[in-house]
Amino acid sequence: MDSDLSPDPELLDKVINLAKRRGFIFQSAEIYGGFRSTYDYGPLGVNMLRNVKAAWWRSMVQMRLDVVGIDAAILGPPAVWAASGHLETFTDPLVDCRKCKERWREDKIDGVCPNCGSTEFTEARAFNLMFKTQAGPVEGEGATAYLRPETAQGMFTNFNNVLATIRKKPPFGIAQIGKSFRNEITPQNFVFRTREFEQMEMEYFVAPAEAEEWYRYWIDQRFNWYLDLGIPSDRLRLHEHALADLSHYSRGTTDVEFAYPWGWDELEGIANRGDYDLTQHSNASGTKLEYFDQAANERYTPYVIEPAAGATRAMMAFLLAAYHEDEVEGETRTVLRLDWRLAPYQVAVLPLSKKPELEGVSKEVLAILQPHFACDYDVTQSIGRRYRRQDEVGTPFCITVDFDSLEDRAVTVRDRDTTAQVRVPIAELLSSLRERTNQE
Ligand code: GAP
pTM for the whole thing? Predict the structure, then answer.
């Protein structure tokens, strides 16, 4: 796929516009004026987001014997976040502009207020990004709870539970997909940085001596996951953090970066967390989180390699990479060249006309395909308009049922990217589409 790497603010607007117009992503509480930095996923968006998460789960859990999944609670007691280091260090430096009173993240503004241009700021204060709430009807310290700012801690606190119930030994991983919450000071760029978002994280427990090797392995795996799902290689790169920039827990971090419309920025981080988390939780809880290697008769605290991705951020990158405008029959069309595994609809069944004769066979075709593919069914407007509508939301295949179909028991399959059309017998339609999506 071709791609232009120069920053392109227009592309962001086009994708935001398409996302709203076609039911991918809506501003949350829009009828009340919107609630900043929260978004709702519409009928097409929820399909696509589920597909992103399913593709991740398939590659990280289903296709492996060394990784299992969990789904941990979002609410947690302060003890977890004290041990993880989040209560103390999960902060951003916050400054107020003395002139216009706007509040900013100090490390994001280069000393100049983006609102009024002033260079006069208050002293930086550490602002904790966690959402604090209260569990139960009684207020006070005993009732304090936090919404998790990352899914990772659920994997560490369940380390012994998973080891005791699943017969795994290092190297093995625990994976989780779920919502996380951060009171970001400057949420921005659509769903790139929001206060409520979804993460896809995996904690891979290894013998300390093997940590570096596995760190490199997971960097490679995760980079290739995005390539495999259609992000062009020239829009992805790796960025290894300098030692001085590492988070409190990290012995090494490499980001997979994507060329967003505003330039290169983080898509996913892969970190070597050492034994930081298991040691912290062992010390704080009094429960040893270790592995006993029977063969070597040795007890040790595994190191953790963590590929940490954002589901919502990844969906945005897939949308940006897929967005194209090209020319078909002298007309400009918008097309999302999404991998079929990510597309909200994989197939659209389009009866050529609304005439009742076509309905029976069209519904028959739909019934054949629906158990295997996410299908749309559209009878409104001209066939050309309907093709464009499907192109715009990334549907890889349109199946047109026409009056000849009644005679020859065949339909026309149109390819989204090439617009090429082929006639396929209904009896062979499913196997033909499975072949075209490499499922045979
Ligand atoms: N457990 C490690 C961890 O949470 P992180 O780099 O803070 O690491 C991992 O987050 C990924 O989660 C990021 O690369 C990004 O894709 C996603 N993410 C983090 N903060 C986000 C936010 N405010 N909005 C959307 N996605 C976010």
Answer: 0.95
Q: Name which residue sits closest to atom 6 of ligand 1, judged by CA.
A: 269
Burial grade of 167 (CB within 10 A; 0-12, 13-18, 19 or more) = exposed
Q: Which two tokens stand for residue 363?
A: 């519904």
Asked which of 28-42, 127-141, 218-232, 257-271 is least confident by mean pLDDT, the reply is 127-141
Q: What is the pLDDT of residues 147-167, one digit of tens each?
A: 999 999 999 999 999 999 998
Strand 91-96 to strand 103-105: parallel, antiparallel, or no bridges (unpaired)?
Answer: antiparallel
Nearest 5°: CA angle at 44, between 42 and 46?
Answer: 65
Backbone angles phi, psi at 358, to 5 degrees: -85, -15
Beta bridge mates, 103: 96
The full length of the chain comes to 440
Question: Under a CB-based contact definition with an 8 Å cutoff, are residues 256 and 267 in contact?
Answer: yes
Locate tokens 């990158």: which residue?
317
Please, is 209 exposed, middle or buried when counting C-beta atoms within 10 Å of its C-beta (0-12, 13-18, 19+)?
Answer: exposed
Work out the pLDDT band at 5, boundaries 50, 70, 90.
low
Which alpha helices (DSSP H) does 63-105 contain, by range?
Answer: 78-84, 86-89
Amino acid at 177: I
Q: State in Å: Cα 198 to ligand 1 middle.
A: 8
Residues within a 6 A CB radius of ligand 1? 150, 152, 182, 184, 193-194, 197, 199, 201, 266, 268-269, 306, 308-310, 312-313
Amino acid at 114: P
pLDDT bucket at 4, cuts 50 / 70 / 90: low
- Across-strand partners of 347? 375, 397
